[in-house]
Every structure is written in structure tokens, then in C-alpha cells.
Amino acid sequence: MSEHLRHSCDNRDQQIAQLKAELERAYGIINELQREKTESQEHPIQTLQYSTGVVDAPVQKKVLDLPLESNPDLPLKNRSSKPPVKKVKRRRYKRQLSIKQVFQLLVLSTVSAVSFGLILYVGRGLTRLKSDPVIVPTPTQLISPTPESTLKLTPFHSPRRPSWAIAQSLPIPARLPKSDVSEIAYNIHTPPHFTSSHQLQTIVNEVVALASAQRFPKQSLSITLIDPKTGETAGYQPQKLKYPASVVKIFWMVALYAQIDKGLWASEQAFNPYISKMIEESNNEAASFILDEITETESVPTLRGEELRKWINKRLQVSRFFQQAGYKDIIISQKTFPISYLRANEPRSNDLRIQQILRQPSKPFRNLITTEHAARLLYEICYTKQAISEEASKKMCGWLKRDLNPSVWNTSTYMDFNPIRGFFGQSLANTGAHLYSKAGWTSRTRYEVALVETPDHRKSYILAIVGSDKAYARDESIFPKMSRLVYSRMISSSDTTHDPVAQGSSSHSIKQ
């Protein structure tokens, strides 16, 4: 607090005290005048005497004591009646003077009250300045002095945010000026080259048979299995486009890190609370906020005409980001619902308009990916660490790490969405395995993609499974059973011919 500010506060206190005293005196005078007015109405003669200064002598005596020689030509009656006329005039003058004084005092009181209120208002502002700490930026908050850092690093608007973000006073990410999202491209332009494996296909076939044996519809099932150390793969309907549920959030995370890597945002840390909730807790509100930020769009207000056309083009950019990198026919431009802070249980406003405009007669517009898409992305993030950059891949894989300790996840208060119970990790809890995963679940879909690694890091695999039917969505045991089956078959494999880890190389270990 500066000396000048303290001096201002002291002056303010003195002015307030003086105004209070003046107001009290004014109120006292007004009360006294009101009392005199009341008395004058009840006792006019006494009031007249009090006002003229003649209290002890009656009016008649005062008149008789006047010298008669003052005007000898006047009759006695006229001479005796003249003084009362003067007194009446004097009394009227006194009454007029009192009313004028009352009016002046009322004006003075009004001005004083207004001044007092203004000083109190200013005083409160000074008090806030006096009580609030002065925030001095720490070195970590400062941005290196580049030509761009001198520009205004604020969002292009104040975006709608979840209530928990507002309650925690989370910072609003600031986009750097002259940043163009359309110029950002995924750094891996072509899919990895995997070879088909009879051994892996046998494992996949066993998983399909397990589902059929328990009366789950296999036509609603898709599977991709990859051995990243041998570059082999197998699958069941692996290229069939299906609704990904919350698995789509991995793709949004990669698109965000691509923008951060290209310097479109002033601070990566501003996004961390939202990434944490989107990936670790599968929070739809955090995902909604991130999708809005990376596409420069918002669900509301409803747009029309050219503004809506521009909005749709921006929202589709996140799909083009992956389509241009060989993720054929992928669509990831639609939010996941419900979203509480938008009061939307399903698409509405602009999110509904994009569905209506891009819908085809036999194909509604919605998020669609394949298990090959999901498995490939996890392979590029956590195994090759080539997604965006090695540093970015390590950070993203860290967000996907799951704690399989039952004391952590097997509780009623773990998370709103439990990514272990009812999914792959539940049956791996006692194996010591390392799990990096993202699960999705709706009333009609159960989806998960995961990289599983043995405790000794010698064996790993990537598994993506989706069951697009209510039967899979309602049953919490089928995915754990499938997961345990694949794990037991993969660790029992004795083929280490193409295993770099078994040959002494650890270049692709998933250790964080």
C-alpha cells in the first residue's frame, strides 16, 4: 500500500466525520424551527413578543408608552393604532425569514447528504484498494519478450465455461494473435504399415466367440488388436465406422496439443485442468470447452446464413485434421452430451443445425471412428511417441495412465465415470500390468481403446473394442472378460523373434 493511498484514506475519513457533524447540526436547527412553528400556531401573541424581543411588557403597555408629541395632528385613536401595524409587518417579516431559512437548510441538508453518499462510495473503493493485495507477476507468469508477446494475449471473447471452472477461477486460455487453425496439420501423414498375423487373429476370434457364447450380438462388435513390437495386427470388422462415445476425446486432445506445439496459445498450463477432467474423468463439460476453443466455435447463440456456414467450416476442421493424415472418413466434430453448463441433454442450437445440414438420407451426421483409428492413435501417442512431438506424446500418454490399485478405483466416490469398473482394467487389477486407456459408455455403446504392458515391460499390445448395442452397454462383465482373455493369450506367446525388448532394446518402452 503506497503512502499516497493511505493519505487519501485518512482525508476521506476526516471528510466523512465533518459531514456527519454538519448533518447533525442541520437536523437540530430544522427540529428547533419546526418546534417554533408549532408554538407560534398555538400561542401567536407570545411568539410575537419573543420575536420582537419584548417579553416582560404587554403590547398595550408598549403602545401607551409611545410619546404623543411624535405627531400631534393625528387623532389619539390613530396614534395608538399605528404601532400594532408595524408589529404585524414585523411579525410577517419574521415568518417569511423563518420559511426562507428552512428552505436554505433543506437545500443544505440535501447537498450534504448527496456529498456524504459520494464520499462513502469513493471510500469503499479506496477501502477495497487498501485491503486487496497487490498481485505482482512471478517470473513463471511472464512470457519471453518476443515481438508477439507485446500484443494483447486475451481470448477473442469471453467463452462460456463450466460452473466448476468459474468457481475455481480457472484462467481462460489466451489465443495468440494472427493464429490460423486451418494451417495446422497432423505431423504423421500416413498410417503405419502393419502386417496381418495369424496368431493375433486367433486371439481375436476367441474374443468374438466369447461374446457369441454369452449371447451378445457379434454384428455389433468391432475389434482391433496390435502387437506394436512386431508390427502385426488382427481384427474383427476393424474398419467399420461406429459411434465412439467418449473415446473421441483422445482425438480432441491431440488436436489441442498440435495447436499448442505450433504456438497458437499463450499458455499450455491454462488447459491442464480441462484436459485432466476430459481424459481422466471423461467430463463432457471440459470436452465441450476444449472443442470450442480448438475450433473457435460455440454451441450458442444460434447462427444463421453466412455466419452458420463459417461456423460449420470451423467445426469440421478438427475432422479434416485427421482425415488429411489418413484417418479415412473419420468424423469427430460433434460434442458429447449431456453438457450441464449449456443445459443441453442432446444436440441443440448450432450443434443441432450442423446435424440437420450435413445429414444424408441413409447416414445421419454424428461422430464416427473405427477401432483401427483408435488403435492407431494410441500407438502413435504412447508407443512410437510421434504424435505431434515426443514431448507432447509423453504428456498425452501421461493423461491416459490408469491406476489399477483397487483401493483407488473400486470405491463409490472414485469418479462420476469410472474408467476401470466394467472395462479392461477391472480384470487386470491383480496382474501388475500398466494400463493407458480411454473408455466411452452410453446407453447403446461400450467402447475402449488401451495399451497394456506387462510389469517387466517385455510385452505390450494395443486393444480396441466397441460393442454398439444395448446389450454391451448394460453388461459390466463382458469387457473385463474379453480383456483378461487377450492378456492371458498375449503373455503366453513364446514368439520373441521380432521382439526388440527381448533382444535387449528398450527404445519403445512405455515407462513414463
TrEMBL record:
The chain crosses the membrane at residues 102-123. The keyword Transmembrane helix applies. The keyword Transmembrane helix applies. One of its GO terms (molecular function) is beta-lactamase activity. One of its GO terms (biological process) is beta-lactam antibiotic catabolic process. Gene3D superfamilies: DD-peptidase/beta-lactamase superfamily. Residues 317-465 form the Beta-lactamase class A catalytic domain. Residues 68-89 are annotated as: Disordered. Keywords: Hydrolase, Membrane, Transmembrane, Transmembrane helix. InterPro entries: Beta-lactam/transpept-like (IPR012338), Beta-lactam_cat (IPR045155), Beta-lactam_class-A (IPR000871). Pfam families: Beta-lactamase2. This is Class A beta-lactamase-related serine hydrolase. The lineage of its organism: Bacteria, Bacillati, Cyanobacteriota, Cyanophyceae, Nostocales.
